[in-house]
Amino acid sequence: MNGVLVAEDLLQAAVCDTNLDNFGDESFAERFAMAVDILRDAGMDAAGQQAAADVCHWLLTSRLHFFDDHETWSLAGELIEQPVFATGEPRSGTTLLHALLSVDPDSRPLRFWQVMYPSPPPGLAPADDPRRARADNDWRDILERLPKWLVSHPYNDMLGNGLPECERTWAFDFRVMTPTAWWRVPMGMSVGALPADSEAQYRIHKMMLQHCQHGRVKKRWALKGFHGPRLKELFASYPDARVIWTHRDPVQVTASRIALLAELIEDLVGHVDWEQQAEVQLAATRAGFNNTLNNPWIDDPRIYHVRYPDFVTDPVGTIAGFYEYCGLSMSAAADRAMRDYLANNKSDRYGKFEYSTDLIRTDVAALHEEFTPYRERFGLDIEQR
């Protein structure tokens, strides 16, 4: 097979460049080959294929160093205790929630520079570690390529010090193709195309936390991801975890995610089919909310459910209620840090993110009726915008 996107060649190049050969997972080579097939079928020109090969090399070599670090420093002995997870459907306030949790002096979030360039363990890195500047430059490139993302997601202005979702830890596991790894590659979003294995995904997620905790004062991890469909595996990995889950009117969630994803795809590949995105995102919304309603773990006492309108009305008070529910204390320093963050990071600081239910291109009244069971389950009114 000719060309730069040949799975076996890419794996071998990573081994040669690192002098390491432990990819940490017997199924990895097969899964990586699936990812390469997706890339090869994306219809990219030679430059695009080379960019994809370069990203593969980055992720493969990072993975090899990561697993080698885990053995070198015996990181499996790092205990991850009482982590806190923010979760909910996309566009339901979880990123702001995560940002506020992260500024609590008693908490520790993951940072983009740590998951983009994890080796060696960040706790061993000096303050001037070049990985920080490298990730900052990466984020400047990302925002140049995807300028609208700063409007819909202004938290990206933190650059390499920003707050990745838990899913970003699965990028070099080739379970997801997130734009924060693949922004240099001219292809659309590939969601759900790679094989999922929740147990394996949380295993590498925990390894990342152990990696980033090593050599540092232990703090409570404050994390964020779309964990609803994987609660069984989440709690199996972190039995003492606590989850704060925001719930929002599904129709508004759908409209907002259509606008966000369509704009990202348009910047990535230069064009977008808005009608197709409306169908894709509505289907994703239906799947997510139906999973929540039918999820046997939804009433687990380790989960604290929050209405989106309550959170946006009083973000700090909402978190204080969550802390009290979990038996945690909201210190004066945490309260002050959260209020300072809100005062200095307005959501429209790069412009107002505009969207409308017209983007859904279907009968909105019928959708409101369809989602009535969800709204009733979590006490939500139809959101008026």
Walk me through this protein's architecture.
With 385 residues, the protein is mostly helical. The protein is 51% helix and 6% strand. A five-stranded parallel β-sheet has the order 2-3-1-4-5. Helix 1 (7-18) crosses helix 3 (46-72), helix 9 (198-213) runs parallel beside helix 10 (231-237) and helix 11 (250-269) crosses helix 12. The longest helix has 27 residues, at 46-72. The radius of gyration is 21 Å and the shape is globular. The mean pLDDT is 95.
Question: Quick summary of this structure?
Answer:
The protein is mainly alpha-helical and 385 residues long. It has 17 helices and 5 strands.
Keywords summarizing the entry:
mainly alpha, 385 residues
